[in-house]
Amino acid sequence: MKKILFLVIAGICFLTLSCQRSQPPEAKKEVQVQKEEIKQPPLVESKSLDQTKREVKESIPQEPKKEEKETSLAKQPSPLTEEEQKIVDEIGENILIAPTKYFESQEDAVPYLKVLLKGDHRNIKLYKGFEALGEDKRKEDYDEAMSKAVMALNPRTKEGKQLIIEVLRTKREYQSTLSEAARAVRASQDKSIIPLLREVLKSSATRVRLEAAGSLLALGDADTALPVLDELTREGATSALGFIFHNMQGKEWEQRGIALIKKALTYENNESRALAALFLIGLTQRRVIKEDIRGIEDILINISKDILEKKSWPITSHGYSDHRALETVILAFWELKSKKAIPVLRSISEHPEASYLKRRAEEAIKYLSKQGGA
Fold this sequence. Notes:
Elements: H1 2-22, H2 25-39, H3 49-59, H4 66-74, H5 82-91, H6 99-102, H7 106-116, H8 135-151, H9 158-170, H10 175-184, H11 194-200, H12 206-218, H13 222-235, H14 239-247, H15 254-264, H16 270-285, H17 293-308, H18 321-336, H19 342-350, H20 358-369
């Protein structure tokens, strides 16, 4: 039995060995490779943590550095021909210093403005060395140069009005130019410009909104202009109140304008309150309205005391607001002709921050001292 079992096992081994020998070389090689792949796992290159972070950072698109951005802007191709660039070069940096020397009339300004309208501060060289400046400075100078040209335009002429409209449409990023164009178009009395001014009114710049609203009011769009002018008055842009006062006489919205002037008496901004008081005094004297003059006088005294209690008068976003408020107060006291204001005027003349108002206050004191009544 053992002998039979041994012979069976030997036969199986022989058959197995014979099958392996009968395989073609390629098959043997493939089997060998497969065995090696099983035995040896693929090698993975090890990376340090710093190297991995660096590769991830490099794969993310990076914003160009400020210097690189400004350089690329400066190298933008100019949209001007050689002749057009000569027009700009002839004026150069001097336009920022003495604009009236070059723009005595619309005829002088038109060629220069037309050239500037072909590009912007990124691709037009205003003067030698302009391209080497930072973008903010280039933008500022381009804006100022263009606004000087707009000032010389006559909006009552066809060409002047057309250029102003083009500025309003295409130069929204330049605040000085845009505000000057919005102001200039007022004189055209062309109501067809109202839709464009409504678009300009969406600007975030106070001076642009102020001029656009003023022009809308002058052109008859009180519904759009009055809410904006009221908002600007509350913020301290007192010219807005002036637009209302000087445009409302005889208009259908006159009573709405008077209501806004009275409303300004309640604002926290002293300059707006003082100007509103002065306007109401004038309206009362002309008998347009009946207003308690004594109540207005008390408001003026309180405004003065509020300002005089400050040790210093800082410059606000609207400039020397406290100085202008007191200047308006002095004028309003003069109109009231009341001796009750004399102590306040004397305090104004003695305040160290009001030195330039000293003479006006003293003149008002002399004038009121000669008046009769209280």
